[in-house]
Amino acid sequence: MFLSSPRLPEPPTRIISLVPSITELLWSLNLKNALSGITKFCVHPLELRQQKEIIGGTKNVNVEKIIALRPHLVIANKEENVKEEVDAIAVHCPVWLTDVNNLADAITMINEIGQLTFTLTKAKAISLAIEERFTALLNLKSTITCCYLIWKDPLMTVGGDTFIHDMLRRAGLVNIFGHRERYPSISFEQIRMANPHLLLLSSEPYPFSGKHAKFFLEKLPGVKIMLVDGEMFSWYGSHLLAAPSYFKQLTDVSPNGPIL
Length: 260
Fold this sequence. Notes:
Layout: E1 15-17, H1 20-28, E2 35-38, H2 48-51, E3 53-54, H3 63-68, E4 73-77, H4 83-90, E5 95-98, H5 103-116, H6 120-135, E6 145-149, H7 163-170, E7 174-175, H8 188-194, E8 198-202, H9 210-219, E9 224-228, H10 230-234, H11 243-253
Helix pairs in contact: 5-6
């Protein structure tokens, strides 16, 4: 079944998280002992991968293994997980499906999971701290344009209806493809024509590195290239506590800072 509201009759003691950023949030809510299963991409904190059952990746979870663990609660995400797999799990287990497209959604999600897991006081403390730290970024408004790449072949970026776009905006950057669909494929020529100040190469889902930065510098002369921590732009749990200070540092060095 799907939960129609964030309520369970008692605190869940067997939770499976299909979302890396939510796994980290559950750990921050002191629910480490309640976690029964996580994905292979749940890398924060790293110790969990040695202690918890790995139930596959975010896009190819082991449905049978999840059902066999008899969880009180499975937490999934509309974008990160596969609908057919989530539907199959929901036939046997309570599933809470999250849908996060911006900071406001993330705050709501954190508080809902707090309510769902009987840790609402701690969740509210985390969400309030996140809101306060992002409020301090309100003066980071500029005309620095950027293209944020998430994939190399084909080149893929982010459109306006995405969590990453909202984070770029809050970091004081203007997404040149903000008018496009969620994750459009683009060409080098389209980047050249838009002429952004910055080309941001994310560390995930494609692991861009220094060798890629040199390649893009040759393809796009005049555009400043920066490698960025993709988790800061796309993780929407307690990881958001660290994002504002990272964005502030990024803005301080843009566009005259590190160029590869």
